[in-house]
Amino acid sequence: MTPSTGAPNTPGTLAFVESPVQLLNVLEWAHAQATAQAAPRPTGRATGQASPRPAAPAVSRSAAEPFDMANLTVVVLSPRDPMSRGQLRRMAELARGEGCAVRWEDAREGAGAPLRTVAGLAPALRRAGTVVIGDPFSRYVQLLLTLVKAPHLVVVDDGTATMEFAGQLARGERLVRWHRRGTGGGARELLLAPVTTSARRRLAPGPRRTVELFTAMPLTEALPGITVTANELAWTRSRFGPPRLTRTADLVGTSLVETGVVDLEHYIGAVRSLTLDHGATRYFAHRRENTDKLHRLARETGLEIVRPDLPLELIARRGPIGRTILSFPSTVVHTLPRALVGTDVRVAVCDVDPGWLAADASPRARGFLAGVSQTARDVRKLRVLPVT
Known about the structure:
The chain is α/β, with parallel strands linked by helices. The protein contains 12 helices and 13 strands.
């Protein structure tokens, strides 16, 4: 790993996260900055050109500007759902253990919470030399970006959404999550359109701002001038594991049903088939999965449902974990091979059959999910299961 292009840690680095994975990737980015200080530094200029596996930037931080974990403040814009909040609190403990300051904001408690939160964060935003964000699609983050004056902006992974963000920014398109249906032209979207436009401008590099994209995702395009840095999950590997392996397979759950992409009955049928074909015994639930759906999966498949207290990359690295990890197209088919490098764990991805898609799924869903699967490296590609 090499450090980001000239992003000094003074007068302060401020990170905004809304999910456990975002906080994990902030720690990965900070670890990469700190570790790179003693590493050999290549010379040249970063092109910002995307590649199937992102390359580290070629311009290094000055040795006179060391990164200090103690100068990083992580602001948690807490979501409402209990599972996300629980995992975020565990991740916050890990961040404090690394020497970072953590500021917890109940940013969605009550109608006035957003305005109070933004007003309270404004002084810190004005002082920050570097701002790190985890979700450029978040309206909350977009609002905060309108106040950012920092000369250095970093976007860390928020799962596979990073792939869509990089492409939309490069093409000059409106920032819209891939699973959203319709044109998004409602009254709320019209009201927030100026905020989104302003945020998109700030996410582009310019004479007074550098922008880094720190990602484990494969990118096919990126806006010229953006520094693309590979997230190798080095912090995760240095702090956890290697794991003890079980003799069975584990299955990774997904919230594709909850987001309206995949039909419930087809999803349950696919999980049942994977369980029988590969001898899976445990199902690691996504933090957003519906409890009723999980109860039904346990009843109809015999799987042990596990509600992880940390992101799956840390759970897998900590172990015990199955020798085979089965997943539908999702972030983990790109991150787990990196987190588990050097172990005997095999990651396998099962494509989503077009027949599984919900009737009102986004038109982009099929192509996006296929791209997530096809670009995954160091994974076994499973045949598409028949619709049941």
